[in-house]
């Protein structure tokens, strides 16, 4: 039995709700008060007793990061690394894979720019090839097309679960079933899906998953995480090692630590790590299925309202679009819409062509407005945002 989201509780626990109408949860969601408190308390402690001493005193709470993330993703604590953002988490995984000339990297149409730039760099360096899996009639990764493409040269499947520029949800678990059956490495960018919907790495079947703290998880900026499946962790040496990831054992040798923390740095933002831990624990206090359900309800309300505005085109792909709503309105540039809404304390963002270049070019889009809801938004807020957009059109 699941209980619906207590929206009033969520709002009471989110100081930002008093100040802004926040529809930029895909950029950075509003932090709950608990997250802010965890960070400020730790900064205060560092100031009072010293940074190393504070970390030692709070060791148990800092270690909670690994068990909390394991509970969130359904994995083991030793399969989790704390990284300063999702891009570096993804990079640490991707650049650890030893590519050979002719190896194939398969990715998807809506892939994120930072990931694609890394593909191109590695292709240039190693002679590996980057290939894009065709999309199905919904704009999702075509699982049938992917199956056709698979052969022994495919070294990696790397796709984004939910892209940065719209409501598309790729069939991550169906891709995982194919990767698993063939023993192909599978790296999932789950930056926009973790915190927005239930994520179970066993069910998805990925080898790596990267996510950020500040988006739907509602953690602080400058935090991210990486999941690495235990069975492959020790086969891959991260591209960057330090004295935390490895131990210098003799003048000519070092030993890399066995768990996923081989992908971490020694120095990290402890206040941020504690803030992210608080955000994950907070997320675990809600039913993730109910978070997803409420997000879809709010996003649907927003899409329906947008479709009723003359000249407005809702652009979300996928069979069941999620909390990210993307649109354009007549000839009004997306950045102007963002600007005008901002002056009314309504936060949305703009997703430019070059963040998801293949998808945007295929659909001939220069940029889109991105309005992303979260469970603490209200129906009244959606109505207010729609009214403001109506007015802007006139
Ligand atoms: C935001 C985003 C990233 C990058 O996350 P950072 O924490 O900023 O590094 C990666 N992939 C997708 C799909 C994103 O939306």
UniProtKB/TrEMBL annotation:
Domain of life assignment: Bacteria
Keywords per UniProt: Pyridoxal phosphate, Transferase
EC class name: transferase
Co-factor requirement: pyridoxal 5'-phosphate
PROSITE patterns linked: AA_TRANSFER_CLASS_5 (PS00595)
Single Gene Ontology MF annotation: cysteine desulfurase activity
Family annotation (SUPFAM superfamilies): PLP-dependent transferases
Family assignment from sequence similarity: Belongs to the class-V pyridoxal-phosphate-dependent aminotransferase family.
The name this protein goes by in its record: Putative cysteine desulfurase
Organism whose genome encodes this protein: Anatilimnocola aggregata
Gene assigned in the entry: csd_2
């Amino acid at each position: 039995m699941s209980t619906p989201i207590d929206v009033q509780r969520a709002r009471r626990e989110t100081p930002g709700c008093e100040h802004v109408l926040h529809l930029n949860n895909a950029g950075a969601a509003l932090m709950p008060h608990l997250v802010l408190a965890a960070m400020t308390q730790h900064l205060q402690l560092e100031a009072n007793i010293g940074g190393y001493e504070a970390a030692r005193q709070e060791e148990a709470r800092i270690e909670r990061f690994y068990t909390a993330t394991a509970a969130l993703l359904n994995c083991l604590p030793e399969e989790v690394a704390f990284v300063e953002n999702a891009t570096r988490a993804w990079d640490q995984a991707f650049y650890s894979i030893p590519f050979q000339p002719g190896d194939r990297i398969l990715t998807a149409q809506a892939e994120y720019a930072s990931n694609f730039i890394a593909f191109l760099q590695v292709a240039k360096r190693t002679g590996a090839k980057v290939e894009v899996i065709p999309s199905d009639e919904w704009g999702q990764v075509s699982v049938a097309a992917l199956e056709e493409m698979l052969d022994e040269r495919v070294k990696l499947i790397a796709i984004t679960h939910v892209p940065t520029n719209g409501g598309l949800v790729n069939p991550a678990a169906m891709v995982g079933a194919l990767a698993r059956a063939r023993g192909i490495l599978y790296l999932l960018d789950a930056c926009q899906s973790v915190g927005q919907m239930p994520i179970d790495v066993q069910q998805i079947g990925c080898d790596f998953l990267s996510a950020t703290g500040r988006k739907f998880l509602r953690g602080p900026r400058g935090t991210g995480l990486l999941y690495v499946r235990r069975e492959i962790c020790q086969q891959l040496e991260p591209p960057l090692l330090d004295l935390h990831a490895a131990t210098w054992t003799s003048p000519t040798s070092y030993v890399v630590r066995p768990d996923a923390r081989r992908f971490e740095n020694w120095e990290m933002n402890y206040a941020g790590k504690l803030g992210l831990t608080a955000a994950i624990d907070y997320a675990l206090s809600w039913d993730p299925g109910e978070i997803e359900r409420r997000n879809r309800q709010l996003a649907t309300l927003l899409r329906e309202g947008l479709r009723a505005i003359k000249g407005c085109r809702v652009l979300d792909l996928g069979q069941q679009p999620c909390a990210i709503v993307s649109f354009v309105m007549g000839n009004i540039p997306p950045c102007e819409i963002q600007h005008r809404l901002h002056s009314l304390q309504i936060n949305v963002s703009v997703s430019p062509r070059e963040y998801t270049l293949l998808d945007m070019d295929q659909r001939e889009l220069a940029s889109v407005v991105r309005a992303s809801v979260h469970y603490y938004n209200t129906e009244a807020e959606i109505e207010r945002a729609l009214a403001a957009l109506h007015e802007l059109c006139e």
